[in-house]
What we know:
InterPro entries: DUF1457. This is PAS domain-containing protein. The protein has 196 residues and is of the alpha+beta class. It has one domain (3-183): PAS domain (Beta-Lactamase, 2-Layer Sandwich), CATH 3.30.450.20. The chain is built from five helices and six strands. Strands 1-4-5-6-2-3 form a six-stranded antiparallel beta sheet. Helix 1 packs across helix 2.
Amino acid sequence: MSDRLVMQPLVDALLADNREVLDRHMTERGASLVDLVWQPDATLCPEPQLHHALAYWHEIRGDRPMPLASDISPFNLRPALGYVLLIDVEDDGWDGRFRLYGTRVAEMYGEDMTGRRVSEIDNNNYATQLFRAIYRVVALRGAPVFSHHRPPPHVSVTAWKRLILPLANAEGAVCRFLSVNLPGAWRPVQPAEIAR
Length: 196
């Protein structure tokens, strides 16, 4: 089955703000989607890395719907840098390629994904499909989103918080995502079948 056939219902649910489909997608695999908020404010992002990235994104966008990708300066993201992913949009937002994969995220994940595609993470499993669907909708809406999910017990971190901020090209279309991914605490993993 094409991964787009799997992701399309997730994209449709995201566009309709239908949490039931998203929750079922996660709970059927032993995971949970704790939070998913479009246009998040600082109260949802109290962690310094998320707070800084969100404030910076708003500062450089000014009166525009989103900042230009060319406006981003890694120097100005220093407080969040180890957790920052820069993802170039591919295939109309159905996939993306990591231009930058933060060192702290790479440590937690166990691999540096710089230069590789989002669809290559964990063999494009259920979580990767959900987040690819979220990236697709961020590309369509041009709006930031905050998510918080708990992976199943066979994953070595208790949670991931993710802030996805769209960046535009000169024509105003989303061409890149600035994402800040914060892992929860480490935990001993429990054996499980690989979630699909």
